[in-house]
Each structure stands twice: as C-alpha cells, then as structure tokens.
Amino acid sequence: MSGSSIHPHLDPQWFVPFFVVLWLGLSALISRTAGWSVLASHFRAAAEVSGEKFRFVSGSLGARRLPVRYGGCLFVVVNQGGFGLSIFLPFRFRSPPLFFPWAQVESVKEERRFFVSYIAVRLRDQWPILSLRGKAGQRIKEGYERRLSNRVR
Questions:
Q1: Could you say which DSSP state residue 46 is in?
Q2: E strands of the chain, at which residues?
Q3: What are phi and psi of 24, to 5 degrees?
Q4: Other beta carbons within 10 Å of 18
Q5: Phi and psi for 48 in degrees, rounded to 5?
Q6: Most buried pick, 24, 36, 73, 90, via CB within 10 A?
C-alpha cells in the first residue's frame, strides 16, 4: 500500500488531460447542437475574410426555441460579398470560421425578445438561425438591404 492518501482516479497528473478531453468534447457537442458543424459543411471560409471587423460580439445560433448562446465570443466581418463568422479560439474546436455570401441569405430582420433587440439572419435551405446583437448585426442588416436594393435596380 502506498503512503499517498489520494484516490488513484483523483491524482493531479490526470487533471489536465481530463480537462482538455472534457473541453474538446463539450466544444464539439456545442458545435453540433448549435448547427455550426452543419453550416461548416456548406459555408466554411476558404481564407481569412476581409472587411469591417467586429470583435467579441454576443449572439446565438441554432433552433429558434433552444439556440446556443455565444456571450461575447464571436467575431464578425462584413463586406460587399457577404459576412464572416468565427468564434474565439478556446471555443473553436469543431467550429471553423464561416463565410455567408449575400446570395445565400434568405432574410435579415430586426427582432425583439423580452427587452433585447437583435438581428435574426435566416439562411437559404438551412435550419440554424443566427442572431446577433449590436453594431455587427446592424451592419449585416445594412449590407443585406444594400444588396436587395442593388438587385432591384
């Protein structure tokens, strides 16, 4: 019998590997639940997106009734071709950067839930709904409306 009173499963040398596996597993589960992994199969960004950048944006992604909330960990880039979405590096496992061309955006509407205003983005033939708060959402709405007005002309 060893002189250590620590249970073998609680040995500190296993804490870091256990934490890393748990973190990666939860990140993968969140990506799947939110629909990020589904969107990545269609909208994965091929390169870094240039344009107007917004850092540490709050928003949500997923089904309307039960979305996954991203509190201040999203990055948004808006340009003439569409908009990019990525997530803060520690949460990025199984959630690669995305780029949504304006042609694939079905609607962009300002909505309100309780006392919070946000912009809801619906994509063509995709179930996850993207909701963004603040200036990033407003710029996406402006870019989408600008594209619509150019198409009408």
A1: S
A2: 52-62, 68-79, 82-87, 98-101, 105-113, 116-123, 129-132
A3: -65, -40
A4: 10
A5: -65, 135
A6: 36
DSSP 8-state secondary structure symbol assigned to residue 81: T
Q: What b/e readout covers 29-42, taking b as 16+ CB neighbours within 10 angstroms?
A: ebbebbbbbebbee
Tokens found for residue 134: 């603040």
Q: What is the pLDDT of residues 115-146, one digit of tens each?
A: 889 999 999 999 999 999 999 999 999 999 99
Sequence-distant (6+) residues with CB within 8 A of 152 are: none
Given a contact cutoff of 8 angstroms between Cβ atoms, the answer to whether 71 and 58 are in contact is yes
Task: Encode pLDDT of 21-57 as tens digits.
Answer: 898 889 888 888 999 999 999 999 999 999 999 999 9
